[in-house]
Amino acid sequence: MAAVVGVVAGAGIGWLLWSGPDSAASDTGVDDAAADAAGACQAWQRVPEFGALHSGGKEDTAWIHFNRALSAAYLARTAAELDDGYQDLSEALQEIEMRLKTFDIKGTEAKAAHEKVSSLCAGLDG
Hints:
Layout: H1 2-19, H2 33-44, H3 50-53, H4 59-82, H5 87-101, H6 108-125
């Protein structure tokens, strides 16, 4: 039992150190939409432009980024369900989700969708 408590405590401390104590994503409230939106944007920051996903021959790495982007979309959806103020972020990431699921990640529209999410996330920082 002590080992389980130690592992859980270590994971929690690791999360706080990684995200930082002042990060909105480090909040633990179950109804904290801001924490979910911040978490979505933190994940999104590590998703490269779509052009990098289909060129370079690293299929395993591309799937990691696909999964990260889909996870961001789910977190943003949760944030919007808790607070309508995150609806734009949620809708932008839902477009990303659809593009990823249909592999529609090439072209100017895909690039614009990527930039829109990045812009919305940048707006949450300030």
